[in-house]
Each structure stands twice: as structure tokens, then as C-alpha cells.
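ARCHIVE CARD
Drawer: 12
Card no.: 0347
Subject: one protein chain, sequence and derived structure
Cross-reference: see card 0346
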Amino acid sequence: MTTPVALASFLAALRRRNRAVPMPAAEALLLIASGVDNIPALQQAMRDPEGKPLPPATVNRLISLLRGRARYKQGRWVESPFTLLDVRPHPHRRGLQLQLSDAGQQLISSYFGSYNCTSNLGGELSTCDEKSQ
């Protein structure tokens, strides 16, 4: 079980990358680490305060941030300090498959241990079995 100290240390590790990380980005990263592997499933897992799925543009911005892609904001490019996600064409559905990069796997396992995560094909949250360490 994850302790509050481990969670706080994880959030601090994200923050130390020369940029404050939005809380939804940390949430998205943890959901992807737990097996959510596509944008529609991530939208459903991340709901707004009224219980509605997050808009696609919001989820795409979070994915771009976690992938390390720069974005254009107020007339200038803002670089992302992260390279925590990789994407590829999804083998079972339209769109992209989201997965942790090597750096993302290392970060997650540093604070939460190693997990064997496999998402199911329906896009629901997966079951992750903790590996013995």
C-alpha cells in the first residue's frame, strides 16, 4: 500500500523538473500506469466536478505535456520538461495507445513499486498485479 509520504515524494519528483505539474497531469500519469491505455478511457476515468468526462482537448493537452511536446501559449512556445509517456497506434481500436516511457516506468516504480499492468480491450480500468520486490 502506498503511504502518504510516498505519494508526496512522487508529486515532488514531478515538481522538481523545473515546472509545476498540474494535478490532472499527475492523475493521468497514474491512471495510465494502472492500465488505462487510450484517450476515450482516460476521459471516462478523469471526470470534472460535475461527473462529466473531461473534454478531449483537455486530455490531449495533458498527454502532450506528459509526452514532452511543446505547446503554443500566448504567442510563444512553452517546452515540456517531461518524457514520461510514449504513444503508438493502438493495436485493437482507433486512435493512439498510451503507455509509460522508460522514464515514466522508472518514476512510477521508484515510488509505487513494480506492477504488471495489462489493460483490457474494452478500455476500462485494468487490474494491475503488484510484482514481488
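Annotation on reverse: The radius of gyration is 15 Å. The chain has a mean pLDDT of 81.
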